[in-house]
Q: What sequence folds into this?
């Protein structure tokens, strides 16, 4: 399936535009380049308007403008009408031609101040089907819409017509519901579901008809249908609870991811408090040591100034001793006492003649010294004591100073760390972080409540299922008793059998599709990424909630970069295409707007690869179509089109490059 | 037009799940019409059920006769 041409008349910037997408070569790749405002996104809107009648990618500036082209309004006389249409020519896989065309007619009313277009005829969609023989079949209304649904189902269109600028938000905003719709749509489970629902309605009608034949049948029918109704209610409530649970889970995950990206505020606060306490303690120790130092200085204040005098005195004594002007450091009375007792007062031995002679000589020498010399001699021990004290002071003061220095360095370290923490906390909005913690807690509480509710609903459902089986058997018995309803009973049995087969088929395919989708998305995503080791895979859960698992094992969808989310969306789309077999074209506006560096080239190369199997139309701004992109796409592109806006900014034209 | 792989998959799976020929034929007929877009579905369903149910009955009778 591919788009052959797009024809646009009087739609927004496009007064009269025709774009052809002929395939040349192996790649069905088409590049459209246009500056901002030339209408790239409105081309996407034009396709959406043509197929679905809405414009989901309308910019704020375009929202304020009429759908009718401004130049057309200007050149239309007041009271005259103008037709807007967008026509999409498509070729199906089996070579059939389809033309989707939506048109609207406006009447332009002009006065001196303004020109106002008013819808003259409501918008209408028609589809022309051209078969191999050249016969044309025209479809309108529901038939035309049904044809569009088979081209690209409306609820799957976001996977076929992307806006790169918004694509990175897709999985952030996506609920399990989107994925469920996609899976149901692509696997055509909808058809089976519709069939099942219709068969249920038929069964009810048949039962009613049987009930009219016999009041006992009608009573059994009413009882059964009442219980079936209760069961359907319970099932609906279970589904709703599951959806609510999935929302709560995704919100919890969102807040967990947000909190994972910021520092643990609580532990930083605690460290800050501990450091402050430590700072007070160190300051106390430091103050005590400073006091010790002061006390030492006070204590030694009287001795310290004598240091020089003591040194000088010691020097004089030493010189005098060298000149033998100072007697040996022995007391005269002491020597006289030894001579008198003829015994050494130290060791107690008697003095021999030789020793006695030596003591006498010593006494003689001492008698010879002056009184000053004596004084000096007696002064020397005191000087030594003072000197010792001063040396001790130097050691003590050195030790205390060192300790004070250590405390000061500790204080500086604490101050540095406190500064770091403060800066860290200031760079984050602490109140917001606290709020995230709170919200996570709230959603965890909600989820727990939902889980409890689900448990009781499941039990209720099992009870109702039992009741339905019993009442169904009762109805069956009543039906068997009544000969008149034999035919109806057979048709009822038939419907129930058919319904059972449809349900079983639906369940099998659904499970299979989900698994294949998960596998394909995961393998493509991991292949596309340049950071190969960061993620371990993509998961699509039982409830269709999609997630990316980090290599460390935690879910990290919310913390993916814009480029990664875009790659994920592309992987999911390609997986959808692969699993469904849908060959509808992919159109991407500003595909690499949020993608940078390595991802850009990667993205471009993947899209070129994909274009070998299906049509890809890419809309770039000139800045986006950088050398690395054009280098890989210029050679492959079948068509390259440039969009240009007229000087009065009311009309866009296209030029094939 | 849009019969992709999954459509074939549905047809195969219905074939595998339905052990009754008449039910299988009914489901395939209805499925094709649903895929094309069915406007007056109730009449079509009732008619299909009646037709296929009758075929099924005849098949059962033939089988019983043979037995």
A:
């Amino acid at each position: 399936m591919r788009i052959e041409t797009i024809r646009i008349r009087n739609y927004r910037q496009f007064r009269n535009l025709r774009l052809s997408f002929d395939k040349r070569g192996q790649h069905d790749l088409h590049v459209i380049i246009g500056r901002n405002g030339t209408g790239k996104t409105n081309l996407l809107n034009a396709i959406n308007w043509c197929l679905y009648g809405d414009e989901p990618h309308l910019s704020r500036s375009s929202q304020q403008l009429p759908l009718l082209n401004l130049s057309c309004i200007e050149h239309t006389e007041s009271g005259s009408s103008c037709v807007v249409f967008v026509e999409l020519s498509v070729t199906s896989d089996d070579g059939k031609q389809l033309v989707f065309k939506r048109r609207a007619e406006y009447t332009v009313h002009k006065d001196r101040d303004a020109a106002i277009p008013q819808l003259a005829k409501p918008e209408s969609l028609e589809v022309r089907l051209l078969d191999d023989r050249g016969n044309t079949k025209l479809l309108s209304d529901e038939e035309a819409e049904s044809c569009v649904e088979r081209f690209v189902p409306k609820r799957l269109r976001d996977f076929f017509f992307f806006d790169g600028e918004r694509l990175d938000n897709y999985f952030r905003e996506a609920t399990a519901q989107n994925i469920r719709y996609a899976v149901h749509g692509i696997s055509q489970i909808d058809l089976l579901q519709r069939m099942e629902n219709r068969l249920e309605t038929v069964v009810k009608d048949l039962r009613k008809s049987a009930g009219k034949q016999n009041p006992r049948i009608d009573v059994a029918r009413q009882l059964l249908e009442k219980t079936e109704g209760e069961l359907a209610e319970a099932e609906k409530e279970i589904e709703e609870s599951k959806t609510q649970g999935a929302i709560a889970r995704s919100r919890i995950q969102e807040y967990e991811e947000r909190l994972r990206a910021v520092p643990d505020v609580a532990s930083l606060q605690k460290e800050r408090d501990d450091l402050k306490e430590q700072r007070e303690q160190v300051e106390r120790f430091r103050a005590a040591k400073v006091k010790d130092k002061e006390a030492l200085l006070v204590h030694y204040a009287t001795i310290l100034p004598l240091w020089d005098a003591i040194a000088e005195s010691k020097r004089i004594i030493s010189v005098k001793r060298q000149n033998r002007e100072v007697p040996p450091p022995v007391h005269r009375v002491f020597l006289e006492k030894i001579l008198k007792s003829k015994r050494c007062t130290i060791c107690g031995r008697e003095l021999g003649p030789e020793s006695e002679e030596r003591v006498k000589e010593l006494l003689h020498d001492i008698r010879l010294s002056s009184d000053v010399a004596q004084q000096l001699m007696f002064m020397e021990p005191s000087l030594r004591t003072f000197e010792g004290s001063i040396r001790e002071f130097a050691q003590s003061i050195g030790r205390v100073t060192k300790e004070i220095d250590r405390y000061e360095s500790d204080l500086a370290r604490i101050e540095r760390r406190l500064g770091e923490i403060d800066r860290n906390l200031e760079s984050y909005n602490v109140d917001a972080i606290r709020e995230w913690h709170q919200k996570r807690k709230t959603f965890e509480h909600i989820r727990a409540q939902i889980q409890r509710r689900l448990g009781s609903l499941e039990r209720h459902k099992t009870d109702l299922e039992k009741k339905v089986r019993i009442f169904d058997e009762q109805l069956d018995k009543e039906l068997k008793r009544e000969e008149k309803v034999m035919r109806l009973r057979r048709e009822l049995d038939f419907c129930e059998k058919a319904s059972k087969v449809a349900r079983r088929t639906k369940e099998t395919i659904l499970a299979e599709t989900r698994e294949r989708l998960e596998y394909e998305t995961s393998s493509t995503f991991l292949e596309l990424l340049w950071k190969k080791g960061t993620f371990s895979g993509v998961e699509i859960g039982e409830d269709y909630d999609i997630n990316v698992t980090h290599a460390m094992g935690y879910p990290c969808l919310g913390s993916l970069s814009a480029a990664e989310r875009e790659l994920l969306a592309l992987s999911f789309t390609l997986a959808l295409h692969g699993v469904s077999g849908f060959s509808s074209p992919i159109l991407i506006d500003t595909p690499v707007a949020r993608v940078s560096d390595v991802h850009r080239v990667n993205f471009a190369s993947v899209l070129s690869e994909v274009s070998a199997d299906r049509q890809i139309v890419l809309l770039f701004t000139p800045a986006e179509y950088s050398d690395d992109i054009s280098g890989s796409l210029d050679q492959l592109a079948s068509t390259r089109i440039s969009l240009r806006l007229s000087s009065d900014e009311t009309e866009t034209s296209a030029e094939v490059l | 037009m849009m019969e992709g792989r999954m459509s074939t998959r549905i047809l195969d799976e219905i074939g595998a799940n339905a052990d009754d020929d008449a039910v299988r034929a009914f489901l395939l007929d209805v499925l094709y019409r649903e895929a094309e877009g069915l406007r007056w579905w109730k009449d079509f369903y009732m008619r299909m059920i009646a037709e296929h149910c009758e075929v099924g009955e005849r098949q059962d009778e033939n089988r019983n006769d043979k037995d």
